[in-house]
Amino acid sequence: MLVIMDKRAEKVFMIMANNFFKKRLLLLLLLISCSSDLVDDPIPFIPFPDINIILPNYQDLSSDGGFIRINDSGVRGIILYRKNSTTYLAFERNCSYKPNDACATVDIHASTLFMQDACCGSSFSFEGIPTGGPAWRPLQQYRTSLSGSTLTITDEIVN
Question: In 10 A of CB 38, how many CB atoms?
Answer without folding.
Answer: 9
